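Researcher: I'd like a structural prediction for the single chain below. Treat it as a standalone chain; there are no partners to consider.
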Amino acid sequence: MIQVFGLQITFFQVIATVLGIGLLVFIHELGHFMMAKKFKIRVEKFSFGFGPEIVGFTRGETRYSICAIPLGGMVKMPGEDIESAKGEPDEFLSQPWYRRLIIAFFGPFMNYLLAFILFAFVIFCWGLTKPSEQPVIGDLVANFPAQQAGLASGDIIRTINGMPVKSWEEMSGFIRSHPGDQLTLSVVRQGKELTVALVPKKDPASGVGLIGIGPKMETEKVGFVQSVGYSARLVTFQSVYTLKYLGEKLIRWEKPELAGPIGVVQILAKAAKAGWENLLYLLGVISVALGLFNLLPIPLVDGGHIFIALIEGITRRPFSKKALQTANIVGFGIIICIFLFATYSDLTRLGMSLHR
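Model: Treating it as a single chain, here is the predicted structure.
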């Protein structure tokens, strides 16, 4: 047992977390590698992990390596940036725009493919998890009215202010429509009836009342075909929800909740402790997020290469060296800002959890 970022974690959790992150980045780089080989672009190095090489071999023009820090991978192609490009026919920037687009796209595509496989595997093996329609409490949010009032997971809510509630939707609608009002809940816990009083907290963004509870989750076994269908829908939902969330935050000029390296490690470690089902599902969620981020039109990431290739395909004119250099500087600044903000958010959450 060791302590990392405020968590007491086991050796298995460390291995699962490190290999999980490594798998996501390695699969991403594998997509670039396969397309580079297909288009006969010279790949100088393809590695799992980074840092000092532990073991490796050279086949043809490529050095294949397993490195000391298994947190990703790397595909090194000559001429990937304008500074090192010499105009050789087997360099990345010497390729037609559509080849560069395909090579850049296949990294995020492999992340989406991995997420699709992981989701389908989890649903087929463990079943489809969905919220119960019954007014039964599943999870509670710390420091919200429900927890402060003494409600617990498994409690069945029968009435609110004397009015019977028969479904989660009916109960949730009543609570959401009464922000700041005192509510009296009749609750059944292990066969005994309890009365609990609380006041829903008003959500500053939407104005609805919240008490910090989630529904009980139920598992339904489904077949292989259904698992594949649900997996495709889940991948789509994760992408659309993330874009919608970020779009709403930008429109309202609100600070988004982002997880940086520390946050990802914490979340994966907790998922590994909960079991393979949770770990594999979370890896799928993070794989979608990684693929989606790399599709954003930010210079230096895959989306920036895709955007530049598309512009060149439309205008039939390559970007000038100065334009590419400027775009790279801007992209580097954006990436550093995102990284610093996400890490700051991680440290803020970590500090809050350590002082509770």
